[in-house]
Amino acid sequence: MIKAKKSLGQNFLIDKNILEKITNTTKITNKIVLEVGPGTGNLTSYILKKNPKKLFVIEKDNQLAINLENKFNNQISIIHEDVLKIDETTFFKDKLIVFGNLPYNISTEIISKWIINLKDKFWFECLILMFQKEVADRIIAKLNTSSYGRLSIICNWKLNIRKICDIKPDSFFPKPNVDSSLLFLYPKKNFIKINNPNNLEKVTRIFFNQRRKMLKKPFNQLFNGNQNILNKLKIDLNLRPQNLSLDTYYKLASEYEKLGS
Q1: What is the CATH number of the domain that holds 96?
Q2: In terms of Cα–Cα distance, which of 124, 135, 115 is closest to 9?
Q3: What's the predicted TM-score (pTM) here?
Q4: Residue 139 sits in the same domain as residue 57
Q5: Residues 6+ apart with CB under 8 A from 32
Q6: 87-126 burial, b for 16+ CB within 10 Å, e for fewer?
Q7: Domain for residue 192, yes or no?
Q8: Contact indicator for 209, 240 with CB cutoff of 8 Å
Q9: Residue numbers of the domain that contains 153
Q10: For residue 248, what is the domain's CATH number?
Q11: Domain count within the chain
Q12: Same domain? 60 vs 125
């Protein structure tokens, strides 16, 4: 019996209905698939039933990697690495469909890294990812809500996102203390260009550092009170960070880039 490791945020999905629902989210027959954090291989088995062209899995845990190799033999290609240390943009030659029951303790790091590191071309067709519900709620949060923030802005920059379903703790072993949510993310055809995504990361970090305060202080910190930018983007400095739209943040990051060029 394989024991889940708390240190790696492991909770293995065991609900057959949910496993079926995940693999029915998009067509994967004859596609190249990547599964992140396959654990005991429950979802892996369901993916293989759909006859993908090739299935890669990324598994950091030594014992789980050995178990997967014994269980699936040559049906899968195991990448025994930390997902945070892989550059997917150069590692994979073909576009992938990505599945992931992401470890709760690093899920925001993983999705932020994937988006910040995106080059001109997407390395994936779509992402079907499971998050702690509270994290998923922040990703899909709307303007003027308490959950709206840096994660909402960064994730929605280049991706369309929709929630598939919420998942109760009973669907996992061991049971987590929280609900989960399954999200479907896929590339946008049009998005505001930001040459260096780290500028978006910086702008959102400074603006949301004191999310309950008005916009004047973070704006002055980044733009030194530049009235032209205020007029161009029609920003009211009496508002708070959660009151600015997604596009306004992308335009702010673009304007910030221009100041440094």
Answers
A1: 3.40.50.150
A2: 135
A3: 0.93
A4: yes
A5: 52, 53, 54, 55, 56, 92, 94, 95, 96, 97
A6: ebeeebeeebbbbbbbbbebbbebbbbbbeebeeebbbbb
A7: no
A8: no
A9: 6-187
A10: 1.10.8.100
A11: 2
A12: yes
Residues 141 and 48 in one domain: yes
Total count of residues recorded for the chain:
261
Per-residue pLDDT of the chain (261 residues; tens, 9 = 90+): 444 444 444 578 999 999 999 999 999 999 999 999 999 999 999 999 999 999 999 999 899 999 999 999 899 999 999 999 999 988 888 999 999 988 888 999 999 999 998 877 899 999 999 999 999 999 999 999 999 999 999 999 999 999 999 999 999 988 889 999 999 999 999 999 999 999 999 999 999 998 899 999 999 999 999 999 999 999 999 999 999 999 999 999 999 999 976
Alpha-carbon distance of 175 to 102, in angstroms, equals 15
Q: For residues 163 and 70, state if they share a domain.
A: yes
Other beta carbons less than 10 A from residue 201's beta carbon:
18
Which one-letter amino acid corresponds to residue 153? I
Same domain, 43 and 170: yes
- Is residue 1 assigned to a domain? no
